[in-house]
Amino acid sequence: MALGIACAGTGLKEAIALLDPMTNDPVNFVRQGALIASAMILIQHTEQTCPKVKDFRALYAKVIVDKHEDVMAKFGAILAQGIIDAGGRNVTLTLQSRTGHTNMLAVVGVLVATQYWYWFPLAHCLALAFTPTCLIALNSQLKMPKLEVRSNARPSLYAYPPPLEEKRREEREKVTTAVLSIAARARRRGVSKVTDTNEKMEVDEVKEDEKDKEKKEKEEKEKKEEKKPEPPFEILQNPARVMKSQLKVI
């Protein structure tokens, strides 16, 4: 937790390298702390800025869903998922103001939040350390004019992470039941013989799902081929989501 607080929002590779083996620790509360700390460090980082983000996001989802996982580790993964996507991915975790001074409110919030082990609602105090990452231009009348801002970086470098894809349950196709048309058998009193009847089987036509799937796959391949090269800059509208590391290229 101390490592996560000290390196919050930095995406420091050395810190992640220390936390990575702790996520497989046999002690449950160690795993819990490692998951939470990793989210603090990786908040607002993409695969372009820190490749480990993808692995940790997958780890959070795996621990949360796993029925055989311990409750403490699950709680840590849930908190980690909330921290890394905090504020709709529009805020970062920092203990300093933009001018570089210590933000006492954020420090107190983190201090109280670390006592979640005693009373879990204290974890909400971590929100006091969240700072919005945005650029809002104002004029002399403190009004927000319409203007464009150029970011001299590839759009994917500071883009939103891709949304979580819900795993759709594969709907099992209903097996078409064979309908037997049997001629009514003559049942008359005193008649012992039963006439043979021809049994016909009527099967519904099979849906052309396979053809549709092939068409979709072809369309997806064509779309991938038609992708244009990524531009080296991006034009943002006021107000814009601008991360701390992105301010250098604005």
UniProtKB/TrEMBL annotation:
<keyword id="KW-0677">Repeat</keyword>
<dbReference type="InterPro" id="IPR016024">
    <property type="entry name" value="ARM-type_fold"/>
</dbReference>
<feature type="domain" description="26S proteasome regulatory subunit RPN2 C-terminal">
    <location>
        <begin position="133"/>
        <end position="250"/>
    </location>
</feature>
<dbReference type="InterPro" id="IPR002015">
    <property type="entry name" value="Proteasome/cyclosome_rpt"/>
</dbReference>
<dbReference type="InterPro" id="IPR011989">
    <property type="entry name" value="ARM-like"/>
</dbReference>
<dbReference type="InterPro" id="IPR040623">
    <property type="entry name" value="RPN2_C"/>
</dbReference>
<dbReference type="Pfam" id="PF01851">
    <property type="entry name" value="PC_rep"/>
</dbReference>
<dbReference type="GO" id="GO:0005634">
    <property type="term" value="C:nucleus"/>
</dbReference>
<feature type="compositionally biased region" description="Basic and acidic residues">
    <location>
        <begin position="196"/>
        <end position="231"/>
    </location>
</feature>
<feature type="region of interest" description="Disordered">
    <location>
        <begin position="191"/>
        <end position="250"/>
    </location>
</feature>
<dbReference type="GO" id="GO:0043161">
    <property type="term" value="P:proteasome-mediated ubiquitin-dependent protein catabolic process"/>
</dbReference>
<dbReference type="GO" id="GO:0034515">
    <property type="term" value="C:proteasome storage granule"/>
</dbReference>
<dbReference type="GO" id="GO:0008540">
    <property type="term" value="C:proteasome regulatory particle, base subcomplex"/>
</dbReference>
<dbReference type="Pfam" id="PF18004">
    <property type="entry name" value="RPN2_C"/>
</dbReference>
<protein>
    <recommendedName>
        <fullName>26S proteasome regulatory subunit RPN2 C-terminal domain-containing protein</fullName>
    </recommendedName>
</protein>
<keyword id="KW-0647">Proteasome</keyword>
